[in-house]
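ingest -> fold -> write
write: protein_1
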Amino acid sequence: MRSVLDDRQQDPVFTGDPSLTVVLDDELVIRAATPAYARATGRTVEELRASPVFEMFPDNPAAPEVGSVSTLRGSLERVIRTRRRHEMSPLRYDIPVPGRPDTFVEKRWLLTNAPVTEGRKVVGVAIRAQDVTMLDGDLVAGLAEYRDLLEAGDLRSFAARDRLAGLDTFIAAVEGYGRLATEVAQMKDMLRSRPTIDQAKGIIMRDRRCTPDEAFQVLRQISRDTNVRLADVAAALVREAQGS
C-alpha cells in the first residue's frame, strides 16, 4: 500500500517548491527532498532518497561539542510523539563536502519540523530549513535565546504571540534577502581570504597540473555545485591538505 510519503517526490507542487524541504519517515529515513534542499546540501535528490538522514549528515568529528545530531533527533522525536510542529532555535549543523566525507563546511540553520500524517497516524516529519550561516554569530545566538525565552513562557498571551510573529517576520525577511547577502558575504570573504584561496589554488594546480586560472575555475565550480561559499571551499581544501 502506497504511503503519502511515496507520493511526495512525484508531486509537482513539492518538487517546484523553492524552499529547502526534506521529508523523513518515522524511522528518520529520507523519503523526499526539494531540488533546492538538494542543492543547498550539495547532493542530488537521488542520493538523498532512502538514506538515513543522520548517516547522510553526521556530526562534524572536528566539533563534537556541538551535538547537532542529538539536538535535531530530539526535535524530530518530539514532533512524532506530540504530533505538533517544532520551531527550532538557530542550530549549527555542519555539512560534509560531497566526495570528501571527512571535510565539513560550517553551517547554521533555522529549522521548522512538522508532522506528516496519514489519517490519524504520524508517518513522518517534514523539515523546512533556512540557511542563516551569513548572519553574525552574536545575532544568531540572540535569536536562539529569544526563541527559547518565548517557548519557555506563556505563548497563549497576545504579547507573546506578537513577539513570536515579529520574529517569524524577521526570519522571512532574512530568507528573502539570503541570496543577496550570501553573494555580498562571499565577495567580502574572498577579499579577506585571498591567501587561503591562493593556497587552495596551489593545491589544485599541484594535484591537477593545471594553470592558476584553471584552478580558480575548479574552486568556483565546486562552490556552485555544493552551494558553499568559495572561501569556505578553499579553507576546507587547505585544512584537508594540512591534515594529510
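write: protein_2
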Amino acid sequence: MPFPESRPRRMRRTEALRDLVRETSLSPADFIWPLFVEPGKGVRREISSMPGQFRLSADEAAKEAKRAYELGVPAVILFGIPERKDAIASSAMDPKGPVAQAIRAIRTAAPDMLVITDVCLCEYTDHGHCGVVEKGEILNDESLDLLAAEALVHVKAGAGMVAPSDMMDGRVGYIRATLDEEGYDHIPIMAYSAKYASAYYGPFREAAESAPAFGDRRSYQMDPANALEALREVMLDEDEGADIVMVKPAGPYLDVIHMVRELTDLPLAAYQVSGEFAMIEAAAERGWIDRERVMMESLLSIKRAGADMILTYFAPEAAGLLAPEAGGLLVSG
C-alpha cells in the first residue's frame, strides 16, 4: 500500500472541491450592524478609534441603515448618545430622544429592516454605570424600573426587538413582564446573557461617552476567567423569557460561544466588539495583515464556533464582499 493511505488534500485541490465540502459559510443575513445615534441633523462624527464608523443623527443613520439593508444586512442595533446626562438616566426614557428618532427614521427609509435597540443606562448616566448608584454601589433591583421604561419607549417608537445589555439580575424577566402588560408581547428580547467585563470595549466607550466615572463594571459584568458561569446566565435568561441569547465579546470567547451553542436551542448571537474591530483596522493600516481576509476569517470563526448571528461593525462591508457580484468571497488559501 503506497504511503500515505489517506489524502485529505484531494478535497482541497480546487475551489470547486473546497466549496463542495465547506462546513461553515457566511451570509449577509448573519449580520447585525451597530449604529451610534445622537441628536441633530446631518451629523456624521467619525470615531477616531474606530475608522469608518460614525456617530450619526437620525437622518444620517437612516441613510446608512438603508444602504446596509440593500447589501443584505437585515438588522441594525442602536446605541444612543443624549444631549444631557444625569444620575438616573432620565434621557433614556425620552420619547423624542436620539434612539426614538432614529427608529422612526430607519423604519421610514428601510421599512423591512429589523431595528433593535440596546437597553442600558450607561450612555445616559453622568456616572457611566449601567444601573442606579447609591453610595458607590450599583443597585440591582432599583435599576429594573428604569431599564423597563427605556425598553418601552423604544418599542413604542417602533423598535422590533430590544436588547438589554446592563447585566442586572432579573432584567430580562422584568422587561418581558412590562412589555407584555403594555400589549407588546410580540416583541422579542435579545439578552446580553454572557457579557464579560472585558478590556476590549475601549473604543466603544469613546464612541458612546460611557466610561465609568469611578471604579469599573466588574461587580455586574462577568469575570473573563469564568465559562461555566456563562451557562448559568444563559439558562436564567432563557427561563426569564429571552428569545435570543448573546455572548460578548465574540473572538476572545469562542469557547464560550461553543459551550452555549451546546447548551441551548435558542438562537445565539455573538458581538464582535469595538476592540476586536479596532485591532484589525490598526494592524491592517500598518500593513501587517491582509485586512479583508482577516476580517472575513474573524467573522467565519465566530460563526463556526456556533453563533447564528453576529453583531459586527464590519457588517455592510462584509455583506458587500459576500454578494454574488463580488464573487461571494469567503476565506481561501
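write: annotation protein_2
The chain is about 40% helix and 15% strand.
The mean pLDDT is 94.
pipeline exit 0
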